[in-house]
Write a structure and sequence with these properties.
This protein has two domains: 287 residues, Carbon-nitrogen hydrolase (Nitrilase/N-carbamoyl-D-aminoacid amidohydrolase, 4-Layer Sandwich); 215 residues, Rossmann fold, CATH 3.40.50. It is built from 21 helices and 22 strands. Strand 21, helix 14 and strand 22 form a beta-alpha-beta unit. The termini are far apart.
């Protein structure tokens, strides 16, 4: 047996906080060594924080990373531990995103990332250069390139994040060259349902290439990107370990690397594929002999046996239901995003929410409170200030709902009427218009803008983080006010569809029993900017609205294609009415792009959202003839 204990770390970093980030890695490395871990795996760009975006273009930003890497090596010199961690280097005019191999007080090698994602929320091709197959260079006297590393426990093949997502990545040639343990350093953002995708991909790669894979992911939030952490160990397709998500720390497991080699000998397909690769002229990846760099201590390790003491019977099923998994993942991700933004910006003292008594502001409040319970468990409400700002159209029902949930959460609640200001602003606007009559929509917008102005005034004076509360569905069709409810310092649920907002609130009502949630849900959703407003009556049923958004913005279907899909999805709705909904959605969607670009920073939880700098990049000015059926 060749037993190896692998520690998978999730580290919450801040971009540019080089010393603090390294201190966190050092702390985990020492704890790993104290628990007899042989190999410690840390996330991508863990020294610099991720994503650094265009900061990578500053030489000073790159130069600050190497001294911290050397400090890490020096302070772990006495540990019988091999560490692999992410670092950026500047090499001959190119920035490289590398996995650094450290042991015995030295940086033993650097392996650059080869596959640079430049899609969705990623822009790495803009700033980093590609590692290359066969690359064999030196950086500051350290081997830099396409290398394997031989230690006294086995042969390690480091790689970085996207390299594992490509079927044409470096894993294949490194496995054929003798790599047994593939170590992938990742900073992969949270996306709904993506955990299962990661698990399946890693299992597939480990099986295809007959290797053990150790995968570590970043945790925490930087700007609007949320990293859920979590990691995996998979041996030749068999799951060994899944680590906790949404929290910093490490988890470890023991594997027998002799098993990886034995399974290769049994797998004739892998052997034949390797022979074909060699025959076709496949170039061997060189192996650096690091056996003298560190003597690992593995004598205390014991053979990995199932906790339930059976190799044949299934372990107890601890999986969550699909509903619980969806809701808890979203709530955990968004509360992590809110909390990290609050803490890492170092600009705010508390949260401020304009609580309307409606669904969106309620969910935003509950997410902020979820974070506050972790940050101040003794008095979470002290981190939040809620304001109810009634106009002539506000109902007693929504006021009661807002007051009730604030009381249940222990959140300070203040009523500040905008009626007088509303009348004053209407009069001023009418004076400016002269003979032109003030429109009903302008009256609605005036109310929203007064509320936003007051929230900004409060924020400026007390250091409050003004949370924007709008959802993705209504934002997609411009059912929001520039300078009003579109405003805020951070948009918490701007990428959460309205149907999901309501689903989450139903879940939270069931799990918490808050009376305030029940009261909010008892009234039809509407902005209360005019008499008897109901959102679905002014727009369309929210399930149809969200379906339109997904089909048009996500699947890129034209209006005629959308009608076909929606007819199958909603057979109970008249086809002509569905067609009207589609036309209305598409028209409003493209007319509203100019609003999105003025919206605040938003938290990302999926592959599809309306942050123009991150996901759906659409021109503000565009013709619409192409939308009509040819």
């Amino acid at each position: 047996m060749r037993l190896v204990k692998i520690g998978i770390a999730s580290v919450n970093t801040t971009v540019g906080a080089f010393q603090a980030n390294t201190d966190r890695v050092l702390d985990l490395a020492r704890k790993m060594a104290a628990e007899d871990v042989t190999l410690g795996v840390f996330p991508e760009q863990v020294i610099a924080g991720y994503p650094a975006e265009d900061l990578v273009q500053w030489q000073g930003f790159i130069d600050h990373q190497w001294p911290e890497l050397e400090r890490f090596a020096k302070e772990t010199a006495a540990l019988p531990l091999v560490s692999i961690l992410g670092v950026g280097v500047a090499h001959q005019g190119v920035r490289l995103n590398c996995a650094a191999v450290v042991a015995g007080g030295k940086v033993l090698g650097l392996v650059p990332k080869e596959k640079l994602p430049t899609y969705n929320v990623f822009y790495e091709g803009r700033t980093f250069g590609h590692g290359q197959p066969g690359m064999a260079e030196s950086h500051r006297g350290v081997p830099l390139g396409d290398y394997l590393f031989q230690f006294d426990f086995g042969t390690v093949a480091p790689e970085v994040c996207e390299d594992i997502w490509s079927a044409d990545g470096p894993m294949r040639r490194r496995a054929y060259s003798g790599g047994e343990l593939v170590v992938n350093l990742s900073a992969s953002p949270f996306r709904l349902g993506f955990w299962e995708t990661r698990r399946e991909l890693i299992a597939t790669r480990a099986s295809d290439h007959q290797v053990t894979i150790a995968y570590a992911n970043a945790v925490g939030s930087n700007d609007g990107l949320i990293f859920d952490g979590g990691g995996f160990i998979n041996q030749n397709g068999r799951p060994v370990l899944e680590t906790p998500r949404f929290q910093q720390g490490f988890t470890s497991a023991v594997v027998d690397l002799d098993r990886t080699l034995r399974l290769r000998t049994e797998n004739t397909t892998w052997r034949v594929d390797r022979e074909d690769w060699v025959t076709a002229g496949g170039k061997q990846v060189p192996t650096l002999d690091c056996t003298q760099a560190v003597k690992t201590e593995r004598q205390k390790l014991t053979y990995p046996v199932p906790a339930h003491r059976s190799f044949f019977l299934p372990a107890p099923d601890t999986r969550r239901t699909a509903r619980v998994a969806l809701c808890e993942d979203i709530l955990d991700a968004l509360s992590l995003g809110v909390g990290d933004y609050f803490e890492k910006t170092r600009a705010f003292k508390l949260f401020g929410i304009a609580l309307s008594g409606g669904r969106d502001s309620l969910l935003t409040l509950l997410i902020a409170h979820r974070y506050a319970k972790r940050a101040r468990p003794d008095n979470p409400g002290s981190l939040i200030q809620a304001f109810y700002m009634p106009s002539p159209y506000s109902s007693q029902q929504t006021r009661d709902a807002a007051e009730t949930i604030a009381r249940e959460l222990g959140v300070p609640f203040q009523v500040v009427s905008i009626e007088e200001a509303f009348e004053r602003e209407k009069a001023a606007a009418q004076t400016m218009l002269g003979e032109t009559k003030l429109t009903p929509i302008t009256e609605q917008n005036i109310q929203a803008r007064i509320r936003a102005q007051r929230m900004w005034n409060w924020s400026n004076s007390c250091g409050g983080l003004f949370l924007q509360t709008g959802n993705m569905s209504e934002k997609s069709v411009g059912y929001t006010t520039i300078g009003g409810d579109l405003m805020g310092a951070l948009a918490v649920i701007a990428n959460v569809p309205k149907t999901v907002v309501m689903y989450l609130l139903d879940y939270l009502q069931e799990t918490t029993g808050y009376e305030g949630i029940r009261k909010v849900l008892a009234k039809p959703a509407g902005p209360e900017l005019a008499h008897d407003q109901v959102g679905e009556e002014e727009l369309m049923p929210f399930p149809i609205l969200d379906a339109c958004f997904y089909l048009h913005a996500g699947e890129k279907l034209t209006p005629s294609e959308m009608r076909t899909a929606l007819t199958a999805m909603f057979p109970e709705v008249d086809a002509e009415r569905l067609g009207g909904y589609v036309d209305r959605f598409v028209r409003l969607f493209h007319q509203s792009i100019y609003k999105w670009v003025q919206a605040p920073l938003s938290l990302h939880i999926g592959n599809l959202d309306l942050d123009r700098e991150r996901a759906l990049q659409l021109p503000v000015v565009t013709g619409s003839a192409w939308l009509r059926k040819a």
